[in-house]
From TrEMBL:
Belongs to the mitochondrial carrier (TC 2.A.29) family. GO terms for cellular component: mitochondrial inner membrane. Residues 272-295 are annotated as: Disordered. Residues 276-295 have a biased composition (Low complexity). It catalyses: L-ornithine(in) = L-ornithine(out); L-histidine(out) + L-arginine(in) = L-histidine(in) + L-arginine(out); L-lysine(out) + L-arginine(in) = L-lysine(in) + L-arginine(out); N(omega)-methyl-L-arginine(in) + L-arginine(out) = N(omega)-methyl-L-arginine(out) + L-arginine(in). Keywords: Amino-acid transport, Membrane, Mitochondrion, Mitochondrion inner membrane, Repeat, Transmembrane, Transmembrane helix, Transport. GO terms for biological process: mitochondrial L-ornithine transmembrane transport. It comes from Rattus norvegicus (Rat). It is a multi-pass membrane protein. Solcar repeats lie at residues 1-75, 79-167, 179-264. The gene is Slc25a29. This is Mitochondrial basic amino acids transporter. GO terms for molecular function: basic amino acid transmembrane transporter activity; organic cation transmembrane transporter activity.
Length: 295
């Protein structure tokens, strides 16, 4: 889970800057131009501004997500598509407690001027300053839009993975198991980001609001209305390319890793059980392939 922040970072700075840039005089023409401009003006290190908060947050977020999703699915009882969606949505909602402040710090650091004029020394300094000036409300700026983005998208995330792994017949011993898990995981990442991407644009704009002058938006609806009126529906696809470019490999690796590790652990547990009770059936009690929800 630790590798994600670096991948998230490259996506993050390009998407955030494309999502919030001034449309009257846009600084970037697109994803590639954005990367080129950052490297030229701020060096390669400029791509990794705000890396601290994802590094601190994503490892905990992923552990929380898979733990909550697995336990919620067990609490719901039946492993059905609806319950897969509901368990994923519950995990998505709960992890917002960490995700929202983490992305607030990341967004602020990615948009601040480089050099001595910069407002924040790092992610922690950013959150401390926001807390000192704006209190808990400031730390949770963008929480509603984060909840509206993450709750349905995590439901789609886990439902898509479950449907695809079952449709492809993913089973231990299948010599194409890992490629199938990677395909299912990557596709789940893409569908989950596509499902609520417009709200990601709104969240970024709300979390960046007021950074370069007086705040522009009075809330989610006002932000959507102003953005649509000024730039048309395309505004809600800003930064989508870099987000999807990152979503496939990161989530392919995440889901494949979790499933292979869980399947191995389940196999070890069954081995121990069968040795402890030699006469007992050795048929695994749970599904042959340990779904992430078996955490
Ligand atoms: N906003 C979402 N699409 N959330 C679901 C995918 C989350 C996943 N950890 C990622 O960063 O890609």
């Amino acid at each position: 889970f630790g590798y994600q922040p670096c991948a998230l970072q490259a996506r993050g700075i390009a998407s955030v800057r494309l999502q919030v840039q001034n449309t009257e005089k846009p600084q970037y023409r697109g994803t590639l131009h954005c990367f080129q401009s950052i490297i030229k003006q701020e060096s390669v290190l400029g791509l990794y501004k705000g890396l601290g908060s994802p590094l601190m947050g994503l490892t905990f977020i992923n552990a929380l997500v898979f733990g909550v999703q697995g336990n919620t699915l067990r609490a719901l009882g039946q492993d059905s598509p609806l319950n897969q969606f509901l368990a994923g949505a519950a995990a998505g909602a709960i992890q917002c407690v960490i995700c929202c402040p983490m992305e607030l710090a990341k967004t602020r650091l990615q948009l601040q001027a480089a050099g001595p004029a910069r407002a924040y020394k790092g992610s922690l300094d950013c959150l401390v300053q926001i807390y000192r000036h704006e209190g808990l409300r400031g730390i949770n700026r963008g929480m509603v839009s984060t909840l509206l983005r993450e709750t349905p998208s995590f439901g789609v995330y886990f439902l898509t993975y479950d449907v695809l792994t079952r449709a492809m017949g993913c089973e231990p011993g299948d010599r194409l198991l890992v490629p199938k898990l990677l395909l299912a995981g990557g596709t789940s990442g893409i569908t989950s980001w596509l499902s609520t991407y417009p709200m990601d644009v709104v969240k970024s704009r709300l979390q960046a609001d007021g950074l370069q002058g007086t705040p522009r938006y009075r809330g989610i609806v006002d932000c959507m209305r102003q953005s649509y009126q000024a730039e048309g529906w395309q505004v809600f696809t800003r930064g989508l390319a870099s987000t999807l470019l990152r979503a496939f490999p990161v989530n392919a690796a995440t889901f494949a890793t979790v499933t292979v590790v869980l399947t191995y652990i389940r196999g070890e547990e069954d081995q121990v059980d069968s040795e402890a009770a030699p006469g007992a059936s050795t048929t695994p009690a749970g599904p042959a392939l340990a779904q992430p929800s078996s955490l």
